[in-house]
């Protein structure tokens, strides 16, 4: 459970999306209009005096690099090879929600003419663009992502203004200014990477309306600047995108200072039968920040206003000591700071006016990150105007910070009307600063001139201790495609004392199409684990045609370093050598307990799974019966079943009948269940195979009989029952229907009921609907929603559900409004007619009328104890409340900053403003089923839905026919139909009294 103190405050900054949107009913709007608040404006600090407002840890200081009037509202900065500073200016923030009108941003070019480290010359490089949020230099110009487009700008005549202006891609999504594609960065593989920010979109070349689009969805992206090939990749979070020295990629989100992207999309895409439930991992712990700036006057005024309301609600609370607006994740890769700072991860916290850092520590194939600065921050300002939106590794070896510098960072949707009427959201609109976080007394060197360096000089620059120099030199080598670089690069691979130089040299050779067996073999044997890892990646295209390289790659399956084994688990899927199966099996024996390692192995198993199973059974019977071994064998056999290749299926059945597996029923059950589950995914079953294998048929029959006996025993545990239930998925419907139906009652644990429901509804029989509908009054409340979801899943079952509503076995309100609406517009005339008859009276009333009708609830005296009962009855299916419930929607301990009126509006009108990651989707499968939920993970091969009760379901894309969104929240309308005004008052009192 997330720490309840991670309050989702009423902010919606450049890096913080509000989950609960604030608005007031008409009565309160009127009161606000007649009682205008007096909120003093905070004065700005002149740029020349700003250094006095900063507090840094010992040994550091903030140095001004540029300020207004040279720049205005900077959000992203990037240096080119000659030290020219490109700045994305985020004009017209905050967005008023209206499309069209004036454009919102531009790119500014700054130059340090006298070489003193301060950028005094400024020109508008490119204007008339939308929301510029990412810049990357390329061939004398820059790529800029400005949703919905990605541009290329270049100045060819030296006047500081782009005369080349080409729209490269279009189609990036835009929902809010905090959630657009952002932060372009250069990768070691010479691709440019960008954060998708969950904005989605259908991306295509801008000059080809008929081109096939790339669906971004909830993923990030990359493109090759040379060929302009575009790909969706694993991700995404919010505003931030960073690499460390070894190309590990990190993201951030408003309350998440550190997310590691672990599973590359290109490997997952190789195996269309592999469901993947997560691709990235939170790597942070602890949510406290130590700001030194005071609470903003408007927040204090809001608190005073709330206390002036008629009733004594819990006092308001401003979450000023936790992460609420994290942005601009950056890994420090320079050489100007002490050695222990190298590899630290930095973030801006725009709400709290500070910069936070953490140390990264390896943990298996990923990392942990921990706070470094005890009870302080590396940088914090007393000035509430300091808004550090982004950081970058600069040519001088320090971090440079883009400071949007404005009085208010929040957007209109995060404030009540009486606050909006008293403040100026544009205060500071024409200001902005850029700072250098520098060691005390640091003297900035003159700007670099790498653009005029020879190719040999660029190769030498790959040994520079500053990451910016290595990245830029490698980019220029790739741009030039100069063959003069090849021999010096080969020499660097063989002789450099710097592992990062050998790393860059290998990647440079690869993109010059000049890497040879010798360099690959040297890399695969390198003393640096990081170099070995990347050499494996680069060797993939040579594994089939070069035996020596293949032999060496296979040996790395037993490398002592976890990340090298992790890469071997991916790379060995690129060869058909039978020894690769044995190598992958050896990794599994050692590492299968780790989800990330297991998924990497499975991604490589498309043509190797059968051999891996046989190898594991022959070599490591102890592993095969262990918990991690059982899980891995089950997943492998599922993949074999999903492929539904006759020869492979029969080999696994024979393995279950004979040899080591035959000696252990646990292994037999695992293999048969896995095969069966996979075959069901492929819309087949074990039946045709059992006809050809009498021994396997006998084996399965015995396991089914044993499963039924387990379910009939009152002494069987829940765990035993759930295993038995899974086995019945492979019985005939006649064998399974009665044992499963019997379990649909409150005498069984909810998890057993859910398991029985899922297995029963896995049968497509029309009889299923009647059984489930009849059980609805008897199942646990937490199971009922899933039962209804199941009945909605097949057209042939809907009639039974509607009959249950008509017979009052369940209420019409048990079916969420979006599904009711779809039933009332169903293509089938009979269903449509019956649904309209049943649901016409339960169609939610106009929200404004409902909200107006519930205004008296704000005057009633609430009872927190009664409110707790009401809240737990209707909310814990989706919300976590005081350690109870499910993490589907936001934690309800995060709303103490709301007024009662604010909160009541959100309860009664949940669709007034819906955040993208809480939008409901309905997924139609090609087996005739339909399932719903919000999308929590996307991979090339699968999507994972989450819905009430915290139920998650991962669906293979190859089994999906259609995905639609109704843009509605998972939280249903119509709550007024089940709670009265007093209960509403009680619930508000309870929610606003929850401990933080």
Mean pLDDT, nearest integer?
87
The tally of helices reads: 34
How far is it from the N-terminal to the C-terminal residue, by CA? 13 Å
**What percentage of amino acids are in beta strands?**
15-25%
Kindly state the number of beta strands. 35
The global form is globular
Helix-strand makeup class: alpha+beta
Percentage of residues assigned to helices: 25-40%
Which stretches are poorly predicted, pLDDT < 50 over at least 5 residues?
1-34, 310-317
Major sheet characteristics: 6 strands, antiparallel
* Estimated radius of gyration: 30 Å
Could you name the key traits of this structure?
globular; 6-stranded antiparallel sheet; disordered N terminus; 34 helices; 996 residues; alpha+beta; single chain
Textual characterization of the structure:
- The chain is of the alpha+beta class and 996 residues long.
- The chain contains 34 helices and 35 strands.
- Strands 1, 21, 22, 23, 24 and 25 form a 6-stranded antiparallel beta sheet that branches. The protein has a 6-stranded antiparallel beta sheet with strand order 7-8-9-10-13-14. A 5-stranded antiparallel beta sheet has the order 34-33-32-31-35.
- Helix 6 packs parallel to helix 8.
List the helices and strands and how they pair.
Layout: H1 26-34, E1 54-56, E2 60-67, E3 74-79, E4 85-89, E5 105-111, E6 121-129, E7 131-138, E8 141-147, E9 149-154, E10 164-172, E11 182-186, E12 192-195, E13 201-205, E14 214-215, E15 220-223, E16 230-233, E17 242-243, E18 249-253, E19 256-261, H2 265-268, E20 280-282, H3 297-307, E21 326-331, E22 345-349, E23 354-363, E24 366-371, E25 379-381, E26 388-393, E27 399-403, H4 417-420, E28 433-439, H5 455-461, H6 467-480, H7 486-495, H8 499-511, H9 517-524, H10 529-539, H11 547-555, H12 562-571, H13 578-591, H14 595-603, H15 609-619, H16 621-625, H17 627-643, H18 646-657, H19 659-662, H20 665-681, H21 687-690, H22 694-712, H23 718-728, H24 733-742, H25 750-760, H26 767-775, H27 781-792, H28 795-806, H29 817-824, H30 829-839, H31 847-853, H32 864-875, E29 880-881, E30 884-885, H33 900-908, E31 919-925, E32 930-938, E33 942-946, E34 952-956, E35 960-969, H34 981-991
Antiparallel strand pairs: 1-25, 2-28, 3-4, 4-5, 5-6, 7-8, 8-9, 9-10, 10-13, 11-12, 12-15, 13-14, 15-16, 17-18, 18-19, 19-20, 21-22, 22-23, 23-24, 23-25, 26-27, 27-28, 29-30, 31-32, 31-35, 32-33, 33-34
């Amino acid at each position: 459970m997330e720490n309840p103190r991670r309050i989702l405050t009423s902010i919606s900054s450049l890096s913080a999306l509000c989950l609960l949107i604030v608005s007031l009913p008409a009565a309160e709007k009127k009161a606000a209009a007649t009682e205008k608040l007096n909120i003093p404006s905070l004065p700005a600090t002149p740029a020349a005096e700003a250094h006095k407002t900063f507090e840094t840890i010992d040994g550091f200081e903030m140095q001004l690099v540029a300020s207004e009037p040279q720049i205005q509202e900077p959000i992203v900065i990037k240096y080119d090879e000659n030290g020219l500073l490109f700045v994305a200016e985020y004009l017209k923030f905050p967005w008023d929600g209206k499309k069209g009108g004036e454009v919102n941003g531009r790119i500014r070019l700054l130059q340090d003419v006298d070489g003193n480290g301060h950028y005094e010359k400024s020109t508008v490089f490119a204007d008339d663009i939308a929301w510029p949020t990412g810049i990357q230099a390329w061939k004398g110009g820059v790529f800029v992502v400005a949703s919905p487009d990605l541009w290329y700008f270049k100045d060819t005549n030296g006047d500081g203004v782009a005369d080349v202006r080409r729209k490269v891609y279009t189609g990036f999504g835009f929902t809010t200014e905090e959630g657009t594609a952002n932060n372009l960065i250069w990768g070691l593989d010479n691709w440019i990477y960008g954060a998708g920010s969950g904005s989605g979109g259908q991306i295509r070349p801008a000059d080809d309306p008929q081109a096939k689009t790339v669906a971004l969805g909830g993923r990030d992206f990359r493109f090759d600047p040379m060929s302009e090939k575009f790909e969706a990749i694993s991700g995404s979070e919010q505003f931030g995108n960073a690499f460390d020295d070894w190309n590990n990629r990190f993201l951030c989100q408003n309350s998440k200072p550190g997310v590691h992207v672990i599973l590359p999309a290109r490997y997952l895409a190789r195996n269309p039968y592999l469901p993947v439930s997560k691709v990235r991992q939170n790597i942070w712990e602890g949510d406290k920040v130590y700001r030194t700036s005071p609470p903003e006057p408007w927040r204090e005024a809001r608190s005073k206003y709330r206390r002036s309301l008629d009733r004594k609600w819990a006092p308001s609370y401003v979450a000023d000591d936790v992460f609420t607006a994290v942005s601009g994740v950056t890994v420090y890769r320079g050489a100007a700071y002490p050695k222990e700072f190298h590899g630290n991860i930095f973030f801006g916290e725009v709400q709290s006016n500070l910069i936070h850092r953490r140390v990264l520590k390896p943990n298996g194939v990923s990392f942990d990150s921990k706070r470094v600065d005890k009870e302080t921050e590396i940088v914090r300002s007393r000035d509430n105007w300091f808004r550090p939106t982004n950081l970058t590794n600069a040519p001088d070896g320090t971090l440079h910070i883009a400071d949007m510098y404005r009085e208010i960072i929040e957007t209109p949707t995060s404030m009540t009307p009486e606050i909006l009427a008293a403040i100026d959201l544009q205060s500071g609109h024409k200001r902005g600063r850029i700072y250098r976080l520098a060691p005390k007394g640091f003297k900035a060197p003159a700007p670099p001139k790498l653009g005029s360096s020879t190719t040999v000089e660029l190769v030498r620059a790959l040994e520079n201790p500053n990451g910016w120099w290595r990245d830029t030199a490698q980019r220029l080598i790739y741009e030039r495609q100069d063959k003069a670089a090849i021999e010096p690069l080969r020499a660097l691979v063989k002789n450099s004392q710097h592992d990062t130089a050998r790393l860059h040299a290998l990647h440079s050779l690869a993109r010059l199409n000049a890497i040879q067996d010798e360099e690959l073999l040297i890399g695969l044997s390198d003393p640096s684990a990081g170099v070995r890892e990347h050499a494996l990646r680069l060797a993939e295209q040579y594994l089939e045609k070069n035996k020596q390289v293949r032999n060496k790659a296979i040996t790395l399956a037993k490398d002592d370093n976890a990340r090298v084994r992790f890469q071997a688990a991916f790379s060995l899927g690129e060869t058909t050598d039978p020894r690769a199966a044995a190598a992958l099996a050896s990794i599994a024996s050692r590492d299968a307990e780790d989800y990330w390692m297991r998924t990497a192995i499975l991604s490589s198993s498309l043509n190797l799974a059968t051999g891996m199973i046989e190898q594991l059974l022959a070599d490591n019977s102890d592993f095969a019966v262990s918990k991690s071994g059982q899980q891995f064998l089950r997943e492998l056999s599922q993949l074999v079943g999903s492929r539904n290749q006759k020869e492979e299926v029969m080999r696994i059945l024979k393995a279950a009948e004979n040899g080591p597996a035959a000696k252990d029923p646990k292994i037999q059950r695992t293999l048969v269940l896995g095969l069966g589950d996979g075959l069901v995914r492929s819309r087949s079953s074990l039946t045709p195979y059992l006809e050809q294998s009498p021994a396997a048929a006998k084996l399965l029959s015995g396991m089914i009989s044993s499963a039924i006996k387990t379910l009939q025993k009152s002494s069987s545990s829940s765990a035993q029952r759930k295993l038995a239930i899974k086995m019945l998925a492979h019985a005939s419907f006649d064998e399974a229907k009665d044992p499963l139906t019997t379990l649909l009652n409150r005498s069984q644990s909810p998890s057993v009921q859910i398991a029985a429901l899922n297995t029963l509804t896995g049968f497509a029989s029309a009889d299923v609907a009647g059984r489930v509908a009849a059980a609805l009054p008897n199942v646990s409340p937490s199971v009922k929603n899933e039962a209804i979801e199941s009945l909605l899943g097949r057209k042939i079952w809907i009639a039974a559900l509607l009959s249950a509503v008509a017979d009052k076995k369940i209420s019409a309100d048990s079916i969420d409004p979006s599904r009711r609406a779809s039933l009332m517009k169903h293509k089938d005339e009979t269903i449509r007619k019956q649904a309209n008859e049943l649901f016409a009276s339960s169609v939610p009333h106009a929200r404004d009328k409902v909200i107006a009708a519930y205004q008296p609830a704000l005057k009633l005296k609430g009872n927190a104890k009664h409110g707790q009962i009401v809240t737990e009855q209707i909310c814990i299916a989706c919300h976590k409340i005081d350690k109870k419930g499910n993490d589907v929607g936001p934690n309800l301990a995060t709303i103490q900053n709301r007024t009662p009126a604010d909160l009541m509006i959100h309860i009664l009108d949940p669709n007034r403003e819906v955040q993208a990651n809480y939008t409901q989707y309905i997924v139609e499968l090609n087996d005739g089923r339909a399932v719903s939920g919000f999308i929590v993970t996307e991979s090339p091969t699968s999507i994972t839905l989450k819905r009430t009760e915290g139920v998650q379901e991962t669906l293979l894309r190859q089994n999906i026919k259609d995905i639609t969104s109704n843009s509605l929240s998972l939280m249903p309308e119509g709550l007024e139909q089940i709670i009265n005004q007093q209960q509403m008052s009680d619930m508000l009192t309870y929610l606003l009294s929850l401990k933080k």
